Amino acid sequence: MPYLIMIAKQTLLGGFLLTLITLALAPLSAQEKEEGEKKKPDPGEKKVTIALGENGKPSVYIRKKHISKLKLKEVVEVAEDLKITHAGTCMFIQKKDGTMEVVPAKEIPMEPKKRFGWVFRANTTRDTLAFYELFTVPKDPNWNKNVSVSGDPKTAKTDLEEPVWDWVWRNWYFEDGDPLGKHMFTLKIEEKAIGLEFEVVEKKASK
Questions:
Q1: In this structure, are 184 and 84 located in the same domain?
Q2: 207 belongs to a structural domain
Q3: Total domains present in the chain
Q4: In terms of DSSP bridges, do strands 192-202 and 107-110 run parallel, antiparallel, or are they unpaired?
Q5: Would the pTM of this model clear 0.90, i.e. be above it?
Q6: Is there a single domain that holds both residue 35 and residue 102?
Q7: Residue 22: what pLDDT?
Q8: For 148-169, how does the pLDDT look when each residue is reduced to its tens digit (9 = 90+)?
Q9: Which of 15, 32, 135, 201 is the most exposed place for a label (fewest CB within 10 A)?
């Protein structure tokens, strides 16, 4: 790290010997320069809060560099006061500090208790948003007893009314016996439907 060196210079003034002290910054070595560059914060790593916890502190976040992966090719205009600009499937990674990080993903490894789901960004002045979610699995549904099944036994339907804080999100988690293959979330917001397809794959064996 850079360090200060002290330079002392003596001079005679009015019969008094004064010591003038100058602080100079010593030059950085090549290694120190490299270490300094590594420590520079990456703007893309900045955390963008998606939800606050009961304590008023951020509880769910996404890294700024991942937001572009969720940007829709065309904005979904639900109404004059409601436009959906970003949407996608993702993993919710639990952190040691109790927060969850949203990581966009179209392939999600099957692992019991692993959280996954969707997130979308709403450009609106509304405080809450009422809509419903359809979650379709490829086969052998292993629905929890609290899940409402639609006419198709492979599709669960959930009515939602969520607060809008720039982002809206929801997560599920895997259980033993859940199927692999293509899955689909369909978000029905008023007269618009947003389909979010992803694939559940086998977890790679750790080396």
A1: yes
A2: no
A3: 2
A4: parallel
A5: no
A6: no
A7: 42
A8: 887 889 999 999 999 888 999 9
A9: 15
Say what the pLDDT of residue 150 is. 77
Distances (CA, A) of 39 to 2, 7, 35, 42: 14, 30, 6, 9
Instruction: Identify the three-state secondary structure at position 65.
Output: helix
Report d(CA 7, CA 197) in Å as an integer.
Answer: 67
Distances (CA, A) of 189 to 28, 86, 161, 172, 176: 58, 14, 11, 20, 31
The alpha carbon torsion through 183, 188, 192, 197 (nearest 10 deg) reads: -10
CA 205 to CA 61: how far, in whole Å? 28
84 DSSP β-pair partners:
76, 122
Q: Can you tell me which residue has the tokens 């003038």?
A: 20
State the Cα–Cα distance between residues 161 and 132, nearest whole angstrom: 8
Does residue 49 sit in the same domain as residue 30?
no
Token representation of residue 133: 């979610």
The residue range of the domain holding 29 is 4-39
Residue 84, Cβ density class (10 Å: 0-12 exposed, 13-18 middle, ≥19 buried): buried
